[in-house]
Design goal:
Elements (H helix, E strand, L loop, with lengths): L6 H131 L2 H52 L4 H63 L3 H22 L6 H26 L6 H27 L2 H8 L6 H13 L5 E2 L24 H11 L7 E10 L2 E10 L2 E8 L5 E6 L10 H14 L5 E9 L2 E10 L2 E13 L4 E6 L1 H6 L12 H5 L7 E12 L2 E12 L2 E8 L5 E7 L5 E3 L2
Parallel strand pairs: 1-13, 8-10
Antiparallel strand pairs: 2-3, 3-4, 4-5, 5-9, 6-7, 6-14, 7-8, 8-9, 10-11, 11-12, 12-13
Helix pairs in contact: 3-4, 3-6, 3-7, 4-5, 5-8, 6-8
């Protein structure tokens, strides 16, 4: 019986049959492939020795190349090391050469120093030999004279140094004032811009200014207290500085009372002269009326002048006279009282007192303290070293100027050009107004080829009250007699007529002269003008005529009730009279006619004044610094 198979089974068998037949067909191909693979392996085995040699050769080549490359780097490094060694050796050689050169240089310097020392030693030996020879033949008087001259030269050098420093300080101050004046002038010019444009700008800005005015005024009022406090601090500092200077003066004056050594006296008197000048400068900054500091300023000024004249005397080898010793004692006592008042002021003063002084309150502590100094303490010693009655300013109104027309700033500039035409003025500027002893004046600055000059002209009449120039004088080319003539011509050109020279003194290369008004043979000391002449250039470099301007007026000269012989009989019989004349002098705030007798007593020079109406001796001056100043009788 035939077995029946389903279609699915048939299909499975068919697939199995096909698979087996395909396997049989594929077997020869596989063998073939294997055979081919065997063949390939055999070829590779044959090629392997050849490739290995080639690889070995390439590896060897690379190794040789690498060794060659390393050899080149090593060679370069070796060359670099050798180069560094060469450079190091070169630097070492250069350093060694420099050390040798420096050593040789030091050795040469040492030899030069030794040679210079030997030369100086030889010079010193030669000087000692010359000095021994000189001393053998030098007299005692010549030796004393030489020592005095050497001391004088040293003192003059120190004084010149201080004066140069003071002059430099003054020049700087004048320069600052000049700059301020120029700035004020520029602001003034800008404020007066002409033309319609300026007016239009002013009108436009008026609204803005009006809107801001309220806030500005309020701020200014609030800031005023701060400004016053700052100014009070400045003035307080000035008071403390003045107190310190017065204390130093007290110490030095106390030493001067007992010192008997010339070298110590020179040092002490130098300090007193310098400190007096410092006190005078500080007094100018005090926030009180100048009338309250006038006597104190005059005292410290005279104290400085007295100390300087004593300094010159000691430097010349002279002993201080009894009058000078008495002057030191007087200055010590007055300064002691000044010290007491200043110490009290410093211990009690506060910023409120300074503000009160700035507001000129009469009952303030500052005003009271300086009033005590002015009225009860200070009296200038009756000694003169710059001419009798050289500070005789008493009046506060100028009677001779009252009838004259008042000039403006432009006219003051024109007058200055006329007065100083001989100085070849190139530019004149009025820098403002000032008050000189309550006399209203214009400050005028003039420019010349030799530098700047400054003058003060009175508003009434345009008279020259003060004049000063700043160029130094180094040489002496003109005698005192010639300087007197130069000063006389200068005063004549300024309109000061009938002026007679009454005193002359020299300070280095400057000749200082005092002129007084003469009428009917009578000298009027209240009408005095001081003139300074440069002995190098032969021109006037300074003038101060405030006494003349304030005091000069028309006078009637009365006859003297007492004859000159009667007046002489009132004088000490030991007084050697060298000159006499009839004068008018300031005495007790009045003008008194008196006979003036100039002469010597006990080695000192004196001025003695005898009242021409009563025959009484009313004034005596002792002259200090007679080597620097003398009377012109």
């Amino acid at each position: 019986m035939k077995k029946e198979i389903s279609s699915g089974a048939e299909k499975a068998e068919e697939l199995t049959r096909k698979k087996s037949s395909s396997t049989k067909k594929a077997q020869p191909a596989k063998a073939k492939t294997v055979k081919k693979s065997v063949k390939t392996t055999e070829s590779k085995t044959a090629e392997k020795p050849a490739n290995k040699k080639k690889a070995f050769a390439e590896k060897k080549h690379k190794k040789v190349k690498k060794v060659k490359k390393l050899s080149e780097k090593k060679l370069q490094r070796q060359k670099a090391r050798e180069q560094k060694k060469l450079e190091a050796a070169k630097i070492k050689a250069e350093k060694k050469q420099k050390r040798l050169e420096k050593k040789l240089e030091h050795k040469q310097k040492r030899l030069d120093r030794i040679a210079a020392m030997k030369e100086k030693a030889a010079e010193r030996r030669e000087k000692r030999r010359e000095r021994r020879d000189m001393l053998k033949h030098e007299t005692k008087e010549a030796r004393n004279q030489r020592k005095a001259e050497e001391k004088q030269a040293k003192v003059e050098a120190r004084v010149a140094k201080r004066q140069a420093a003071a002059a430099e300080k003054q020049a700087k101050r004048e320069h600052r004032l000049k700059v301020r004046a120029e700035k004020r002038a520029d602001r003034k010019e800008r404020q007066h811009a002409p033309g319609f444009g300026g007016w239009l700008a002013a009108v436009i800005s008026l609204g803005v200014v009006t809107l801001a005015l309220g806030s500005m005024v309020t701020y200014g009022w609030l800031n005023m207290n701060g400004m016053q406090a700052e100014m009070a601090d400045v003035h307080t500092q000035s008071v403390y500085e003045l107190n310190s200077v017065v204390d130093n003066l007290d110490t030095n004056l106390a030493k001067a009372r007992v010192s008997n050594s010339a070298s110590e006296q020179v040092r002490i008197l130098s300090d007193i002269a310098i400190e007096s000048e410092m006190a005078e400068v500080i007094l100018e900054r005090m926030p009180v009326d100048t009338q309250l500091t006038q006597n104190m300023a005059s005292f410290v000024n005279k104290m400085g002048d007295s100390a300087q004249s004593m300094l010159y005397a000691v430097a010349r080898g002279e002993k201080l006279t009894d009058s000078q010793i008495a002057s030191i004692e007087y200055m010590y006592e007055v300064n002691l009282e000044m010290k007491r008042i200043m110490n009290e002021l410093c211990s009690t003063a506060c910023p409120k007192d300074m503000i009160a002084a700035m507001k000129n309150k009469k009952d303030g502590l500052m005003v009271k303290s300086f009033g005590d100094l002015q009225n009860n303490t200070i009296e200038t010693p009756k000694e003169i070293n710059d001419g009798p009655f050289s500070d005789s300013v008493k009046k506060v109104t100028a009677k001779n100027l009252e009838a004259l027309k008042e000039v403006n700033a432009t006219r003051a500039e024109e007058l200055a050009r006329e007065y100083f035409a001989d100085y070849k003025v190139t530019d004149v500027r009025c820098t403002g107004e000032t008050l000189a002893k309550q006399l209203e004046c214009f400050n005028v600055v003039m420019q010349t080829k030799d530098g700047e000059m400054m003058a003060q002209l009175s508003k009434k009449g345009g008279k020259v009250v003060m004049f000063n120039s700043y160029k130094d004088c180094k040489d002496k080319n003109f005698s005192v007699e010639r300087c007197v003539d130069i000063a006389q011509d200068f005063l004549d050109d300024l309109g000061f007529e009938d002026m007679k020279p009454v005193w002359t003194s020299e300070n280095g290369t400057t000749c200082n002269l005092n002129f007084a008004y003469e009428q009917d043979g009578v000298i009027f000391y209240p009408d005095m003008i001081k003139v300074k002449v440069c002995e190098e250039r032969g021109i006037v470099t300074g003038m101060e005529g405030i006494s003349y301007v304030l005091n000069h007026t028309e006078r009637t000269v009365a006859d003297a009730a007492v004859s000159e012989d009667e007046a002489k009989s009132k004088i000490n019989s030991g007084f050697e009279i060298e000159g006499s004349r009839l004068t008018v002098i300031p005495f007790d705030n009045e003008e008194v006619m008196a006979y003036e007798f100039y002469g010597n007593y006990g080695g000192n020079d004196y001025y003695i004044y005898v009242d021409a109406a009563t025959g009484e001796e009313i004034q005596v001056f002792t002259v200090i610094g007679t080597k620097q100043g003398k009377a012109l009788m």
